[in-house]
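Marked as duplicate of an earlier ticket. Keeping the data here for the record.
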Amino acid sequence: MDLTRPWASRTLLACRPDQLGWNLLVGALIALPVSGQTNGKKVAGTNATANGGPVILEPVPVPEGYPIDLGYIRGGRITLGVGYKAIIEAAELLGRGSEHNTKAALRLMTRELGRREFFLNAFALGRHEVTNEQFHVYVKKRWPKTRFPFPWWKADDVNKQREVFYKKHKGKAGMSFKPEDYWLENWPNLKWELPEALKKLPVTYVSYADAVGYCSSTGLRLASEAEWQRAYQGDKPTSYLWGDKWNDDASSKMIGYKSIRDQKIRAAGVLPHGRSPFGLDDMGGNVWEWTQTPFLGFDNYRKTFRNLQKWVTKKKKWKALAEDLWAADKRLIKGGSFNNFSQGKIAFRTTTRMKLGQHQTVEDLGFRVAKSLQPALDTSTLWYRNRFDRTVLGDLELDLPSIVEQLRAARGKGRSYEQLGIERWTLDGELIRGYDMVSFAPVKQLKFRNERALRESAAKDKKGSYGQPIGSVFTTLPFSVQQGLKTFASLDPDMYVVYYRAGLMPRELDIAMRAGQKVLKFTKGVRPKEGDPNPKAVDKKSSRKKKAKKAKKGKKAKQDESTQKLAKDWMEIVDRYGIPDEITEKYPRKRPETMMIRPGNLLIPIKKNILLFRRHDSGDYIAWAEYRKPLRKVSTSTLKPALTIVNNSGKLEYDGGPRTHVSNYRYQFKISIKLADGELQKNGWITPASNSAALPELEKLVPQVQAKPKDNAPASGKQKGK
């Protein structure tokens, strides 16, 4: 594929149906003016120095052990969205007196109306877009389950498939071979390789799922719109990467477009003069970038849109504008691309919001990775969102970030999550060869008023519950849990839900065994056969007591009904728990020590407090660990969750748990697992403790990121630098 081919001309003349929305947006961009100067002046901006040249900003490195192509972004408050007056001013400036162009700009910018505030914790963002070379490591590991990008398709195989296509459709009118469409439908059967010339270029033709898949396997994620804008503009809101004004000549040079010949994809990070204030490359231009933010309106959108509508219809006497059709299944893309050389003044604006369907692949769309500086939080969140079977949690949720939470305004500090974990990377320069992590995430909230209510619900639930979910374990490594004094149960790398179960007899089993004891006593230990009437035990004294109790407490009639139903089905219930008739016959004088739970057919102790480990997908109970610690309710402000690495033992211990019905308290649990021998002794693990020690030092470096300007920096006017 010829990557230098002008994007607009090809896609507007022969576009795929799934790119129609994209083409309509670009059509609006193309309608805007493409040449001329802005007020006859050159641009000055936040990256300008006193002598007129732009400052070359160097990114602050992340702590040791993280991928080296990440840059540290200081946390802070960010406001997204603009008012209707700012939209009018920008549209009139871009329209240059042309009513048609002003309308086109207004239609495109209405999606920016409204306001949303965030307080972002510090995070890391890729210094440049993910390259073909980096993405190749991911595809090669997972082929053929993962799709390779279109430009990697071997040229000789393209020609071969073209011949096969025309031979198959010979004589059929209107049939033409479209390589991109053929690749989308047949990629598992095609031959591919990564050409040397593409290695350092940003990867393109990746869908949203492709980008998320790469992030999920490398311990990273996509940035949110708020994070992307924070990294793009720094501490001072600006309209463009370098300032508030656009100059067709000087501004284009800043992002590498001196002429139409430069309208092509280029190697990542080759234009340091177009860096963001945090030292990140190619945030304006090269390729558009996926974000994880859904295409939805900001708060107060309708009110600001109505104000804009009044200006359009009453002052300008134009036809009313149509409201944006928001779509939560679409994702925002940011940054502009090499194909927007002639539409840069709108494509490269800080607040421009373009959308695309998650399945779509485009030749000038790639992605940049982000990273939360909380070990293993990103991987846990992605796995939970995209792969986790939540049916094992019932109506509960894990305490991990949701996209809905990311759209809520933050009035104070950024949201904290009580997930804790460790992670490490195997790096080869900027290439990620391997990634490992272990993560613990508690359930968000259990609505029990006290420990007694929780304990009883965890063993004596009316439905015969095997326990209450309290959290989860995510891991890429095999581990084991201790069952009793000397026994260990081995578990494979996966996602597990951890249940707490108190050492009490399940209510339904107790009722069934009492009913079974009476029957077996009457039949002298011989179980009734199928179809035989269920004999009643002759115990007049017991019968009189029951009648008296029922008459005295009529409000328990419904409960007695349920008890009678359980007693009637006693054989089915007793068999489900794996209790032999020899014990049932002597119950309650002789009580069972163990019982079997399903699915999974796991044998567990009845009298001991235990933690149950259950697979998220199959729902099988596969291991248990004795829980000797007393159950406590603690204040979240005085006792923070903790993760402890037990020296020379391979053990990880998580102290934390779900919040109570009062959000500033939680139930404190200790979940302990043991990794394979030697795993925790290997170097390279990033832990909560190592992060806490490193981040304050990084904050000191942020104000010192500016370096001296290069001699060959393109001039941007004689105004003073900011």
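See parent ticket for discussion. The first strand starts at residue 70 and ends at 73.
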